[in-house]
Amino acid sequence: MQIAGEMLIGQAAVKGSAGQMKATDPARNIEIEPAFGMATAADLQRACELAAQAFDSYRETALEKRAQFLEQVAQNILDLGPQLIERAMQESGLPQARLEGERGRTVNQLRLFAKVVRDGLFLGATLDSALPERVPPRSDLRMRKIGVGPVAVFGASNFPLAFSVAGGDTASALAAGCPVVVKAHPAHLGTSELVGKAIQKAVADCGLHEGVFSLVIGDVQIGGDLVAHPAIKAVGFTGSRGGGLALVRIAQARKEPIPVYAEMASINPVFLLPGALKTGAARIAQGFADSLTMGSGQFCTNPGLLVALEGPELNEFAAAAAAAVQAKPSTTMLTPGIHQSYEAGVGKLSALDKVELLAQGGAGSTACAAQPHLYSTDVETFLATPALEDENFGPSSVLVRCRTAADLRRVAEHVEGQLTSTVHATADDREIAAGLLPALERKAGRILFNGFPTGVEVAHAMVHGGPFPSTSDPRTTSVGATAIDRFLRPVCYQDAPEWALPSTLANDNPQKVPRVIDGTIQPGA
Amino acid sequence: MQIAGEMLIGQAAVKGSAGQMKATDPARNIEIEPAFGMATAADLQRACELAAQAFDSYRETALEKRAQFLEQVAQNILDLGPQLIERAMQESGLPQARLEGERGRTVNQLRLFAKVVRDGLFLGATLDSALPERVPPRSDLRMRKIGVGPVAVFGASNFPLAFSVAGGDTASALAAGCPVVVKAHPAHLGTSELVGKAIQKAVADCGLHEGVFSLVIGDVQIGGDLVAHPAIKAVGFTGSRGGGLALVRIAQARKEPIPVYAEMASINPVFLLPGALKTGAARIAQGFADSLTMGSGQFCTNPGLLVALEGPELNEFAAAAAAAVQAKPSTTMLTPGIHQSYEAGVGKLSALDKVELLAQGGAGSTACAAQPHLYSTDVETFLATPALEDENFGPSSVLVRCRTAADLRRVAEHVEGQLTSTVHATADDREIAAGLLPALERKAGRILFNGFPTGVEVAHAMVHGGPFPSTSDPRTTSVGATAIDRFLRPVCYQDAPEWALPSTLANDNPQKVPRVIDGTIQPGA
């Protein structure tokens, strides 16, 4: 398929006329053809208008039909074949195996949401019987959740497939019954066009209203205008704290404020308790170094903070971790901008008082290569130095040495909200761990034991979210089945005649959805 | 029980020293003894600190114990006896039967949440089995929802019991496992103290941490400081648009922004379709007048807008509605301030061009008596006059005369977000109704058929919420079982050893909560 440098507005392919942009090959720091035309205000208006027009019919698609649409999107992405992987490699600097794995994740995510849609539990269907004899009589009340309306999605640079045009935000919004307008990430424009065309084709394949999906191309201004557009009712974003907060401000300043689900900054503390280190400091150190450098450290759940108690087992761990990090090569980062930020970040860390550089990985050979860094400091310095808590996006981490279990708790209470917190503990560490867990729960969306936080499983029980600033809304997740909840709102129908009832609330439950009837959950099938 | 003019900070009763305030008897426009001391910054700090301290233990209370606590609060409110009703009558101007009914609603609401807690569906407990043989292996993932943290609750003036100190916000936050700090509404300080003491006693009766509940007294500044306090993690509010938006701004400006659930302004359009009017214009008119004037029109769901098609049946309805409104007496409003606003509102409406006064109720005899008002206008005037869409809190409504079904749809698309929309329709009106329903669904949280929106049932399927500006967050409800969802956030435990797992996620499910296991819902009991 020819990559044409076009936006997708409903079923049309449109070359934007408000300037041009090109993707960059970060390994060589050169631009990649073709040039992409940027959206005019009229292009954006058309995409949002179509989405608004599509909403009434799309949200009432039968669950089976909506599930088939999500599966068709998955199939159409697979049908793109090797061209998608090749273009994504060129635009992101990520290796082939990683991108093939990411494609599998993207496709499985769409299929999981197809299952979620078929199951129908997300509807929260709830029926309370009328009580005509009661004084006063109780009406017949039936509730279901519907989509909030058209959703704006911003692709992330670090997952050009799984968190981008057909990523988790798009999949969960489409599953919820919301049309989607994606703003393509400038770092992978060609990848975005290819995946966008797969979705656009699925819309036609399934006979849906063309406004169900559009893909616009543009700069920060177009992104802001998209969030400000009255047709848009929610926003999904994965990226930097600054970028996320800018969108929140725009969304709050609207005449009708709307929710923004921004997944932003997290340093993902890992607590290494003494019993666990005794059972295998070297093994844990290797696991840490692998997790730190995976994807050039460009994961939201990268382990950027290690916290441990002074002692011989910590010394053993530190030496092994330093050796493991030293053995890691430098690898290409996603964009020149991200690379510059990382270099600035390690420069800042290296210049801090009482912060020691424990290890550096191998020097880089490509243009945007990131050299892994591991630092060490003491607990008092950590607590007194806000810069040590800033996310440094890339393969950089800080080991905080504590003297007492109380120090561990001080660190747990001190850090900001996180996507994840991790505890390495054996039964011997139970007392210390029990002292940490309440704080970890208050501060993070996912608590791991004896593992590392990179690798976010797409599953029913996953939580990829957490208190501010890890996200702008800790009540939700952006990965896993319940991500659909972000794009729903409840509607109650009181004394509705049968002809006005949505079928999921009808007496005979033709779509066999689970329902809470007079307070008791009834499985649907 | 002596009303002492005190705040309740944990188990202490404290006379605030930052100035004094008194409640007002609105029927006579005189102050009521005693004076209440207002909170100092130190008082507020102490209440919030205690709430933060209570959170770790309170959120881990066994479901049965938490349910018993809610039931104890209900019992302790009943045990206050007639003193509560007498004081509430004096402070609100509401009649005895209404307040006794409201007490019943308040107690039933607490008991409903006790059931919701025992059932455990709100936890969203979800388990995904480990897949050790898969490549790569899948971890064991278990998710549950926990309370977001201490919640600030602002009582509403119009329901001194059901939407105040022990109202829906408090009940749902306590049910979610969140400590609560209530700011008493200045209009019913004595009622607040009495109810507060019932909750305070229940905390002691049940052996909970004293920080689970506090009640502070103060002005707008103290309310803002409460929302800004770092220990507070969410806010529940029912009141004016201005008041709600002020709290949203404070919450958004925090270092850690937090959600505000503000239930604000709604005019609750009622569409009267021709078939329905033909079957009983006079009956519908009487139902409308009763709903309009109930509680002096001081309901969030008051029917402030009627929309109908020109024709003989509308003429019949208008005449009957005018007669029914004329027959209604004036009744005392809640506060002198609310009464002044209402008077200003009807003054503004009466002065509008092309807006006709159809009927006025009887003249008032008490100080803050509101005279019911019914206006009439044509659709073009309505669409061109924003003032006709402003909520005029009190017994005032506007009838909009349309010429075509398309006009009805224009009104449905034109109005802002609403708590409710109502359709009076028979099977003959089906086509017109079907044309309206998609817009009504996009604009309102509850859609009623052939009834009136006042009277919000406390039930599982109720939605008392809706798009902005009816609330600040359309994804939720402030009445009904799912109001608990507002104060929860999910946490995932990955590969947790048995000793670290919350009991609701343990293999043997000792609390018998419903759980989604590998994607399938399993009822608990």
UniProtKB/TrEMBL annotation, chains A, B:
Keywords: Oxidoreductase. The keyword Transport does not apply. The keyword Oxidoreductase applies. Residues 16-466 form the Aldehyde dehydrogenase domain. Gene3D superfamilies: Aldehyde Dehydrogenase, Chain A, domain 1 (3.40.605.10), Aldehyde Dehydrogenase, Chain A, domain 2 (3.40.309.10). InterPro entries: Ald_DH/histidinol_DH, Ald_DH_C, Ald_DH_N, Aldehyde_DH_dom, Aldehyde_DH_Superfamily, ALDH_KGSADH. One of its GO terms (molecular function) is oxidoreductase activity, acting on the aldehyde or oxo group of donors, NAD or NADP as acceptor. This is Aldehyde dehydrogenase family protein.
